[in-house]
Design goal:
The protein is of the alpha+beta class. Helix content is 16%, strand content 33%. The protein is built from 13 helices and 36 strands. It comes from Stakelama saccharophila. GO terms for molecular function: hydrolase activity.
């Protein structure tokens, strides 16, 4: 039990204890890392290598690890690193998704910058308006990208600019965002996706206050359009009743492969997408070539095969490559037994193999997959975690996005099996005193299974010195911690380490990095052997005199919040816990989450298996013996794990007279977006552990 005056201090006082003003020195002068330092870090994504292999384009954003940044720009760097990276396509808002034309002369991209397309616009390129029936030509009218008063709606539109620089011109003015742009092989057309606009009667109804939402009855589908650069116009080609999420052209440009589903909701996108053949000239949808598709389609350079990745049911996130042969009408399964997670699948330049990223244990590799046998061979083992890579048209040059232990995400060049950084986006980090990041492993004492994880020790840590320790659990369960950069609003390790904490980041069973069977090993068993994996890892750190057994904290987001709540209700080993957006009561979670297939994949039908759901629900195990102080954090508009679940756990603790605080962030989904909210999460996490450990 925690004693003394600190636990009875008000939360405002606790926050003051951890405020930046309390830091003796700023991070760039050798002081501890503050939440404000983390919020100044840039992130990057969308790596796009020019066809000739000379130039890399990539998107830089002003927030780490968020899906909805307020500002993004497109940067360029020579692939050989011969000069520094520089901003290349810049506006006051969002510029992202750079795509080179096949001849390398043009760059298509998306932007929400001010769009001059109004009645044809001064650019000379005609605007696009949507039709309600497809296929068909565009029709004239007021461009949906602006209101009748000329106000911009802020949606992302398709733009084009010369690769050698110069002015960018807009190609579209759709009512909704344009997404997933793909050049045709001859460079004469650009395929793109955009969501249906509101019909006039819908707008009239909303004006009358009739703004109710009918669940599972969305009428707004994501549609496929093709822009003709010569005619300066576009037509919608996808038929009614299909939601399109990805597209690829055949090498001859006559056919397409699409990833589609029948409903425009997130659950259908994740679990019920399929890859189909498609004739853009007639709008005819052909046969389905891959069910439950999660990535793809990717048409082979010779036009004979189409690759994709399938979710391995029941519905987790485990992915497996598949190759469809058009001539023989056969689908080949590849690498189902690979001991890692394969993502970012693509064909090699010659089409003789597939390339992919493979996340294994706690690090990424670039690998080559034999499309006939599924054999996986390592091209490059990376020192950290990668989420994107690209190759040039000849396959001679390769680059990757990579976060390494001592630096946030950068572009790295890969040559002869070696990787080297060619950008330095966050130069200030070189002056920070960082925790040491390393991969560790231990065994579960019940079944002997080897478990991997990441350990971050404070700067200047002396081995054999038991130190206050925070266990941070990742989301998922199928996700994983990496031996790379660990500093963002929900990755607390480097910040905590700089304040004198050991941070233990385990990848228990259920995680990625050890194959499909390992990821599936928590079916019907959240809080079972996965929790045992974590506790055995913690025992290992105590035995090694790394973790102080009397000063232990635990916390995490999503599934990490769940397992932290589980720890609170299963003993008092931890002196503080942070439960971030945790699904702590699985029956209501399964029935109200926006991805209902997700819990069903672990536990099955709710009515039939209700006892199993309840058996794994920390909210149903709250009891008088709990002593761990708990901080509950939750997004106020979280549809994945609704905030009522966090409130249930918090209120349950308070009704028992236990120490607990709860903070809700208005308007935030499951993954927080607002910089002020992201900063506040880090501030409160640090204050909570400082007060109780």
């Amino acid at each position: 039990m925690t004693t003394g005056i600190i636990p009875r201090l008000g939360l405002a006082v606790l926050l003051a204890l951890a405020s930046p003003a309390a830091t003796a020195q700023p991070a760039n002068e050798g002081g501890a890392i503050a939440p404000s330092d983390i919020m100044k870090l840039d992130d990057m994504r969308d790596v796009a290598l020019s066809p000739d292999g000379d130039t890399v384009l990539f998107t830089v954003q002003r927030q780490m690890a968020t899906f909805s940044p307020p500002h993004q720009n497109i940067w360029a760097v020579p692939s050989d690193g011969s000069s520094d990276a520089r901003p290349f396509i810049v506006s006051a808002g969002i510029d992202n998704t750079p795509r080179w034309s096949p001849d390398g002369r043009w760059i298509a991209f998306l932007s929400n910058r001010d769009n001059p397309l109004l009645g044809g616009g001064e650019s000379g390129i005609s605007f696009i308006t949507e039709t309600t029936d497809a296929p068909g030509p565009p029709v004239a009218g007021t461009p949906p990208g602006k209101s009748s008063s000329g106000e911009q709606d802020g949606s992302k539109q398709l733009w084009l600019m010369p690769a050698n620089g110069g002015g960018a011109v807009p190609l579209t003015a759709m009512s909704a965002d344009v997404t997933d742009i793909v050049w045709s092989p001859d460079g004469k057309h650009i395929a793109f996706l955009s969501t249906d606009p509101q019909a006039p009667e819908e707008k009239q109804a909303r004006a009358r206050g009739e703004d109710w939402i009918e669940r599972d009855h969305s009428r707004h589908f994501n549609r496929l359009w093709i822009y003709d650069l010569a005619k300066r116009s576009a037509r919608r080609v996808s038929p009614a009743g299909l939601n399109v999420s990805a597209v690829d052209w055949s090498p001859d440009g006559r056919r397409m492969a699409l990833r589609v589903n029948d409903r425009p909701d997130i659950n259908a996108y994740f679990y019920h997408s399929r890859i189909v053949l498609f004739d853009p000239a007639t709008g005819k949808v052909g046969k389905t070539i891959l069910e439950h598709a999660a990535e793809g389609p990717f048409w082979s350079p010779d036009g004979k095969r189409i690759a994709g990745e399938a979710i391995l049911l029941p519905g987790f996130i485990s992915l497996a490559p598949r190759v469809y042969d058009l001539a023989s009408d056969t689908l080949t399964k590849l690498a189902d037994d690979h001991p890692g997670l394969l993502t970012k699948l693509r064909w090699s330049a010659g089409g003789d193999s597939l390339l992919a990223l493979s996340f294994e244990k706690t690090r990424s590799k670039v690998v080559r997959i034999d499309p006939a046998t599924g054999a996986v061979a390592t091209i490059t083992a990376l020192d950290g975690e990668s989420s994107d890579f690209d190759i040039d048209a000849d396959g001679d040059t390769m680059v990757a996005q990579l976060s390494s232990p001592a630096r946030p995400t950068d572009v790295w060049a890969i040559d002869h099996g070696k990787a080297r950084p060619i950008t330095r986006l966050n130069r200030q980090v070189a002056d920070w005193k960082l925790g040491k990041v390393r991969q560790i492993h231990w065994r579960n004492h019940k079944d002997g299974k080897t478990i991997y994880g990441v350990l971050v020790t404070p700067p200047g840590y002396t081995p054999g010195s038991p130190t206050r320790t925070v266990v941070q659990i990742h989301g998922g369960p199928e996700w994983a911690w990496w031996a790379g950069w660990l500093g963002s609003w929900h990755e607390w390790a480097q910040m905590l380490a700089s304040h004198g904490y050991v941070v233990f980041l385990p990848n228990p069973r259920g995680s990625d990095g050890q194959g499909v069977d390992f990821a599936r090993a928590v079916g019907n068993d959240w809080g079972g052997m996965d929790y045992q994996d974590v506790m055995d890892g913690l025992d290992y750190l105590v035995d090694q005199k790394i973790a102080d057994p009397d000063r232990l904290g635990i916390g995490g987001w999503s599934y990490g919040g769940f397992l932290s709540a589980w720890a609170v209700t299963h003993g008092n080993r931890f002196k503080a816990a942070v439960v971030g957006a945790g699904p702590v009561d699985l029956v209501p979670f399964a029935r109200i989450t926006d991805t209902p297939d997700f819990p069903l994949g672990y536990y099955g039908d709710v009515t039939t298996h209700m006892a199993d759901y309840d058996r794994s629900s920390p909210a149903r195990m709250l009891n008088e013996d709990i002593e761990t102080p708990v901080l509950v954090l939750h997004g106020g508009a979280d549809a994945r794990v609704p905030p009522t679940l966090g409130l249930e756990f918090y209120r349950g603790l308070k009704m028992l007279g236990k120490e607990a605080e709860m903070v809700t962030y208005p308007g935030e989904p499951h993954w927080l977006h607002e910089p002020a909210h992201q900063k506040d999460v880090q501030r409160r996490v640090l204050a909570w552990f400082d007060a109780h450990l």
